[in-house]
Amino acid sequence: MPSASLPMMKPAREPETGRSAAKSKSQLQDDSIMGTNNSSIVSKRSVERLYFPDEAHFFRYFVKKPQRRSPLINRGYWVRMKAIDQVVRQFLEQDSPKQKVVVNLGCGYDPLPWQCLERYPAASNGTKFIDIDYRDLMLKKRTVVQSTNELNSMLTGAKVSENDVLFTSDQYIQLGCDLRDLQALGRVLASVIDIENCTILFTAEVSITYMNVEASDALIHWASRLTEARFCVLEQLIPDGEDHPFSRTMMAHFGKLRTVLGAVQKYPTEKAQFSRFTGLGWPKVQVCNLWKLWNSPTFATPEERTALDQVEPFDEWEEFALFGCHYFLLVADSANMATRAVASSISESQRSNNLEKSTDSTLPARSGLQPELIFSEYPKNHGYKRFAASMPVKGPDHSRDMIGVFAGMGLNTRTDSMDKYSVDEIDFQVLNPRGPAVTPSSRMCHTITDMGDTSLLVGGRTSPDNASRECWLYHKWLSTWERLDDLPWPLYRHQATRLNSEYVLVSTGRIDSRTVSTDFLVWNRRKGWVRCSSENPPRPSYGAVFFSNKIADVGDNSSSRRGFLAGGMSTSSSFLDDVWQWKLNEFNTQAPTIHFTRLPSFEDKHLVARFGANVVCIQDKFYIIGGVIKDRIMKLAEEVCVLSINSTSISVESIPLGFTPRPLLIGSTTVAFGQSLVITGGSAVCFSFGTFWNKGSYTVLLPSLEKAKSQEEVRPSEVLRLIQTVAAETPCKTTESRISTESVTLNSVPRVQIGSALEFSRMLESSTPVIIEKADIGPCTAKWTTDYLKEKIGTEREVIVHEASTEHMNFKSKNFSYVTKWFGDFLDQIQQGQMLYLRSLSAEKPSEKAADISRDFPSIAADFVLPPELAVVTENTHSSPLRISGPVNMWLHYDVMANVYCQIKGSKRLLLFPPTDVKHLGFEPGSSSSQLNVFQELHSPRLAGTHPQEALLQPGDVLFLPSLWLHAASPTSGVSIAVNVFFRNLSAGYAAGKDVYGNRDLQAYEKGRIDIAKIVKSFENLPKDVRGFYLQRLLDELRDNI
């Protein structure tokens, strides 16, 4: 085959000095780059399994252990895979007299050739698919192809060789080649195809970005000189600077992996990538970020989008938009290549000036306001919330107003606590109030509307398919919650706006992950919920910008209001950028009517039409804060804008704020406090790169709109800071109708010595706790000093530990955080009295495998043994975590599996309760943990009716803990070291699937909970008194069978 037509370039030379060191570093980086393929291929396999059940699966042959990724990662990879598939399909289907060749640059284990042969057999006929990557990786891929009949049976004329051409067939070729060596690349490619008589599509999905930018530019320029070629790139962007939180998290992730993104720093935007390719010899270039691609009606049909929502619930739209804005699809054609619109969503002739207009839109007029912005850092592990809701509340003496931020998603789980912000300069504290008061349960994506002396909480959700109908009224002067009539349907991602001191209007929102409500609702204390009749309504949406123009003053009895609706997501999961005015008539009657008028020529609608934004009214001006917009990233200068409305005009102005540090205004809450905007919370999962949290609150001090304040008038005392976190006041659940005032009797766990396995079998049968004394558990009791552990395990071994803010850890309120520490530092810190706790996880795959001391800590495992009398434990072991704790208490909980707790160093006190006490100890349905501090409440009336036992463990003691015994632990010495061995004491009935911690409830219980939910649902259409009557009878019948 002729090679003269193929342009050749010499690879860049390495400097002569330090060559061996540079080569070693280069090889290390190459290995890291190859390693990125492993994560990517597992994610694509997750998508394949879930979203393509009716297609042949090819990723399965390259992924030995499939994992189900999160919905956000699944959807992101679905878009990536579809984008590449559309480009390849269009190339295969276009007419050409020449042979078509698809070259996958940096292919990894991607099975693109087999997918095309299966999906598009006619279009793929006669096409050559060529995979190119590092030789070591391609050798592994070749082995899989050779050994897998489902792959090699689709190929004919297969041959294997040991030069750069590793595998050939009539349809498919494998090349082992370094893409930085263009001379070798050109030579090997020319040896397998006739360049002049081929039309070539190069694809590079997040591959050439790992090359240094000079090398990738050289590769792109080299390909542009081919006779008839197309180049498709999908990789990262930095659309609004490296200080954008998503960009910062993304770059830090790849930096940590030692796979620095080469091109993105030099070519950070779509415009820069357009210029890059045109400057490197490609005359026709089309480029589009993936968020814009997603919103294109020709990229995915409404039916396709709806089908995605049927597969798994999805509600991470802001995070998905951020992901999409940080990736682009680019297709470049050589002069002789017939061009068509890529994925039918990028304009066919996208000139540089058009691209600039679409991606770097001219900012709107800037407001003359010059606000002062002050950042207040959160206390450690507190204040971190997203998708909460805020409201004005009263201080303890009612003399000063505060801000309360209720519920939302915390660092680890949803919360039901309230964070309170004040201008008072007092130390932060966590309050755990007691008493009979009831609060709303944990939730997110709810609304709270200030109504003067009260605030109305509406809806919310736990998961996207578990929304709430609940409505609550918060009484500011009493600091109490009152349960109101439920909504007609569950609702979240809605908006609510106050009409006057008695009425609230609620927009459409999500009912579940597949259903959007269609009706607007008016609430009033006397009337409850009333549906509005709609005239000329917009498409149903959720997450839109929605507000009433003017809130009526007290005494205003007019029955009409006006307002705005803009943005949001449609039922088919596409972004809506329409702006509507609405007029609500007769809202104080039983027949309110809301009429909508679309504003088609609204200027700067991209600033108003948002998803997930906050709207705050101050002095008849409406401030829109955060969220995401259609098609592109929202610039820092656009994050906050002000909308001014009068009888003749509407204007929008941006308010550029010099945020330091720069926040991510996703899931944040904003509330007016006098002349200030107070922004709290906010966070986003940045695709697979990590989670970003705002580390404090922001007070935006707005100057008076009548007369600007002088700098001297902006006082530090006007800055709000987090001063309290108030835990939920939910009482412990109990079925007892009376509360005894008698003190409990505390008994000691018996201590015994055993000499045979038969004696331990009898203990198992009795199902009561026992402390086994003088058991031989190996030399660990003598050896395991902190110095010895440092030497054997290593001071720089990374461990994940609980870092507590108080001595009593509470699993429900999460008053602790999971942090990664060096093992040596951890031991030093607990010796110094820091409140840390280690419960070891699997060193290999902590989310998949249970802890095993022999596998996780092989250097010390031989020091610990179970005596032969406990052979049944050894033979049925589930896990054996190492536990090392400082002065911190483990919360009250139960384990489904029986276990033996072997105290090795230090001493520990445990309080144990029999399973029959569960009804007294605040365990909510489905939860294996209680928030009750039994050490503190031991002699209080709250534990009346319980039967506690106390175990005081010394080194060498082995505590047998039967299944389901409730227990809490507290160290009584500075440092406690133990090994906890869980074992299966039942022959069947454990939860199906993985149970890493050994505390998943039995299958029968989980099935029973589902059955109960079905029973309750079957009564939901009956009157409340009838429903209660029959459910109580069923409850009595259930009790009779206990």
From TrEMBL:
Region (Disordered): 1-37, 345-366
Comp. bias (Polar residues): 23-37, 345-364
Domain JmjC: start-end pairs: 855-1000
Gene3D superfamilies: 6.10.140.1470, Cupin (2.60.120.650), Kelch-type beta propeller (2.120.10.80), Vaccinia Virus protein VP39 (3.40.50.150)
Record's protein name: tRNA wybutosine-synthesizing protein 4
Pathway linked to the protein: tRNA modification; wybutosine-tRNA(Phe) biosynthesis
PROSITE patterns recorded: JMJC (PS51184)
